[in-house]
Specification:
The structure is a homodimer of 203-residue chains. In chain A, 40% of the residues lie in helices and 10% in strands. By secondary structure, chain A is of the alpha/beta class. Chain A has two domains: 6-54, Helicase, Ruva Protein, domain 3; 76-171, Dna Topoisomerase Vi A Subunit, Chain: A, domain 2 (3-Layer(aba) Sandwich), CATH 3.40.1360.10. The radius of gyration of chain A is 22 Å and the shape is globular.
Chain lengths: 203, 203
């Protein structure tokens, strides 16, 4: 595709490098920005540049942070006894949005996936050892994807640390709220029968 | 949604201001940029900022350009007798990609659409008068959307300038290459019968 201007071509090329955005969408976005006041695009451009230059990773949990220790890890109201092990920051945001968890997190930075060339050494597993050495944690909760890769990762970590005296748990799997049994997959339905819970009228 | 970092929150907010991009996609894009080398995001941010600050509009056709007169308008090999009237720069790119047009363009900057509050005064219609005064153009070709708004715009321009001695034409409407008649809409099929062409074995 030939663009009438080199700066437009450059912007389209850069925008279309983002995942899920092709040349046509990139052009549409660039034209949209050109129709807005200049401050809009300047704000967008500046915020993208400061994102990568200013963001830090929390030393404790590997979450993104504006400081050396993130707001969750430095929050004294949150329990140090529970550590929720997740794949990435989106999972932290999702769990925080439920408002049901008052412990801390540990972000692995991915899951073991030989197909994608990700082994245990690419993950933040040494931080689990660090948590164990600190001696405050009592329970590690696996909140990983319900996929083969997620299960493999949980099993790897469990096997490595099962003799350290710490308790391991996994978030409940089962039928989601609003699901009809008829359409639920067999594995989820099977697991939800095996892991049935005492009936509680308050749920 | 609560983000673990203010720079991340700011970037997500700015990215999700783009059309068709919600908060979740914006977060996914921001996390993608954080996984790339910093130069990637810096390049993207810089190109967006220079896009709006450096781009110019061609004085003649209102196309985007790096100069006062765009490469198409200043190309002496292209005919000044044909002026193709289009809505925006994407149409110019689409027509240029066909390689079938050697005239010049005039970008209206939209189409008459009372529903969206766009009237003739928001469009580059004075530039049509300027082209008429220059006296080089012999034919105006309407290449507008095949919609009510596109037709209204063409009709408005035609009515305003029909006594100026210039010839008006419209790009052909009909059945697209690869279309099956069975699934073609009635209006297109009807028009393609009325505007049938002499059979040409070279087509």
């Amino acid at each position: 595709m030939d663009y009438p201007s080199k700066v437009l071509a450059k912007a389209v090329e850069e925008i279309s490098g983002l995942p899920g955005i092709g040349k046509k969408t990139a052009l549409r976005l660039a034209l949209h920005l050109l129709k807005q006041p200049n401050s809009r695009a300047t704000g967008l451009g500046t915020s993208i540049i400061s994102l990568v230059n200013e963001i830090q990773y929390c030393r404790e949990c590997h979450n993104f942070s504006d400081y050396e220790i993130c707001e969750i890890c430095s929050n004294e109201k949150r329990s140090d006894e529970l550590i929720c092990i997740v794949e990435d920051v989106r999972d932290v945001i999702a769990i925080e949005n439920t408002g049901k968890y008052r412990g801390k997190y540990l972000i692995l930075g991915g899951k073991i996936s030989p197909m994608d060339g990700v082994g245990p050494h690419q993950l933040n597993i040494p931080s689990i050892e660090k948590k164990l050495q600190q001696g405050l944690a009592k329970e590690f909760i696996f909140a990983l994807s319900a996929t083969m890769e997620g299960d493999t990762t949980a099993y790897y970590i469990y096997k490595k640390f099962k003799n350290s005296g710490i308790q391991f748990s996994s978030i409940a799997r089962g039928i989601s709220v609003g699901d009809e049994l008829e359409y639920a997959d067999e594995i989820s339905l099977g697991r939800s029968i095996i892991n049935r819970l005492p009936y509680n009228e308050k749920d």
